[in-house]
Amino acid sequence: MPRSRFEQAHVRPIDQFAILRLPAVYIRRPMFVSDLRHFLDIPDDAPGPARKMAQHLGSVVQAATAADASTPWTTALACRRRPRNRPCTGHIAVFRADLPAAIEWQCNVCGDEGVISGWEESPFDLRLPGNHTRNGPNHEIFLSDELAGALRELTLLDVECERLVYRMRSSGEDNILEASADELDELLGFVAADANHEINPNRRRRLDRAFAVLSDALGTWESGGGSDSSDSAHRSSGEPGPDARDITGRWNIVEMDLWDSEALDLVAPAFIEFSSDHRGSFGFIAVTGWIDWRISDVDRFDVEFSWDGNDEGGHITGRGWATLGDAEALHGHLYFHLGDDSGFRAERFRK
Questions:
Q1: pLDDT digits (tens, 9 = 90+) for 233-267
Q2: Are the CB atoms for 118 and 102 separated by under 8 Å?
Q3: Are 175 and 90 in contact (CB under 8 A)?
Q4: What is the pLDDT of residues 191-243, one digit of tens each?
Q5: pLDDT by residue (tens digit) across 119-137?
Q6: Is the pLDDT of residue 23 over 70?
Q7: pLDDT at residue number 115
Q8: Which long-range contacts (CB under 8 A, 24 or more apart) does 25-29 make?
Q9: Taking CA 98 as the corner, what is the angle to CA 92 and CA 100, rounded to the nearest 5 degrees?
């Protein structure tokens, strides 16, 4: 009996010969043959199952087109099924051939599977242009299903970062995000921007957690640390983090890496402020920003934050971190999304 492409590539499909030993709920379902064009522009009043299927098929196409063709692989997409009213623990394996232009998908646990046609040139088609080559990734981050899902839900991603997110693959225990430092820095800007505009508290917490994990990984890489990181990282010392009262308050920015001290106070005295409700603000030269901050759960920083602001009337966003130093000094770093970044030193404001 010929083996499927998934079996040939060791993608852990359901065991064809052991199917009779599986519970009835796991018996192979009929293959779902679909044309993606029938699932585009589904009206808002369409039944819930139809909308969920459209979302599922779109995500499969994004994953299959974000990576190279002709190679079966297991994505970070969780299976959509709920056998016995419990979520299937599997992930979706995909295969995209150059010709014929069809995408095959299959859950690597329950065997749910299908074929998608009509996906070319759709909004979910993430194929690279023919003359575009991508530099190989040199870092890996291990993410849980929850954080991988939070990244896929980002609403402000550009196409390059969409490819980055949907190229995530499942290792069986974790999901592996492969990225260069520049790619991760760009992704962090989108996570910060989404978190700043998110009103759902649960989703915002997931974005904050994703931001902390990715930011810690980038900081480790930039400081010459290991090339792999995990979302299980916490303060390695086991000691509690700083008391929020040590951070809150207004600080005068007295020094920045990119700008002379005289320029910082061009419009008003340069400052950064952290309020007790985990908000804040900062200003220097002609830049103003509004902060959403959290006590960091990684040991390199005391607080991490995303920010939204303007520079001479132009909208800008970014991220940053800060840590308490000696003698009432605050040291940190500000990042402008797709722009400059600079370290800073601040001193406690004295009336």
A1: 433 333 334 555 578 889 999 998 888 888 898 88
A2: no
A3: no
A4: 888 887 778 877 888 888 888 888 878 877 776 665 555 554 433 333 334 55
A5: 999 999 998 876 555 555 5
A6: no
A7: 94
A8: 25/83, 25/84, 26/83, 26/110, 26/111, 28/111, 28/113, 29/111, 29/112, 29/113
A9: 90
Whether the full predicted model's pTM is greater than 0.85, yes or no, is no
Helix axes 181-197, 201-222, angle to 10 degrees: 160
Q: What CATH number was assigned to the domain covering residues 244-348?
A: 2.40.128
If you average pLDDT over every residue of the chain, what do you get?
80
Cβ proximity of 152 and 163 under 8 Å: no
Instruction: Specify the domain boundaries for CATH 2.40.128 within the chain.
Output: 244-348
Token representation of residue 269: 């005295």
User: How many other C-beta atoms lie within 10 A of the C-beta of residue 299?
Assistant: 16
pLDDT at residue 74 above 60?
yes
Sheet holding 32-35, edge to edge: 32-35, 113-117, 103-107, 91-96, 73-78, 169-170, 175-179, 139-143, 228-230
State both tokens at 155.
């609403």
Give the integer Cα–Cα distance in Å for 244 and 293: 11
- How many Å apart are CA 331 and CA 345, to the nearest integer? 5
Structure tokens at 87: 């979520």
Rounded Cα gap, residues 342 and 333, in angstroms: 6
Q: Tokens 């001479």 appear where?
A: 312
